[in-house]
C-alpha cells in the first residue's frame, strides 16, 4: 500500500491562544520530530493543568478508553498507548482495570510525567513518524490520543498500528476533525479495502470540548 502524504495546509483549529499548542499547529502536516520533541519537553510539567483546564476541556482520553471497552477489549489485554504523553490515557485505562499497558512517546520529559501515574508497565521513547520498534502482532489493543493532529504524525502511522496488534486486536485513535480529509480517511479506507481491518467506528466526538474542537474516534479491528 502506497503511503499517503500528509497535507501542509495552514492549521485553523482553535488553540485557545496557548503558545505551545499554537506553535505545534503552525508546523502543519507532519512536523519535524526534533521541533515537536522540544516543544513538548518544555511543556511537560504544566501540560496536564493546561490541557484539562476550562480553555481546552480535553476529553479525548476518556472517549478513547470508552471506545476500547465498547469494542470488547478485556482488562487482561496487553495494550500499547502510542503517543502516551503525560499518561492521561493510561490513567483512564487503569481506572477501567487495564494493568498490562505499555506507553511510547517522542518526548522524554512527557514520559517522565507518565511514569508518575504508575499506569504503565513499560515506557519508551519512540518517534511515530518512523516504524514502531516492536515485532508484528504483539498487542491486543492500541490507543493513540492527541497525536494525530496538526504538526504531529501523518496517516501512514495507521498501517503501523495495524501491524503491531494481533488478529482481532482493536485500534482506537483520535484524529483531529480538521485533518481527517488530509489522508487519514483515505488511509483508513485503504486498510479496509486491503482487508487488513474492519472499521468499527469513525464518529465525530468532542475532543477539546472547552475550545469547541472535535475529533474522529477511529476504531478498527485487525483481521
UniProtKB/TrEMBL annotation:
Pfam family, one: Methyltransf_11
Protein name from the UniProt record: Methyltransferase type 11 domain-containing protein
GO molecular function, one term: S-adenosylmethionine-dependent methyltransferase activity
InterPro entries referenced in this protein's UniProt entry, alphabetically: Methyltransf_11, SAM-dependent_MTases_sf
Domain Methyltransferase type: residue ranges: 80-172
Protein's organism: Cutaneotrichosporon cavernicola
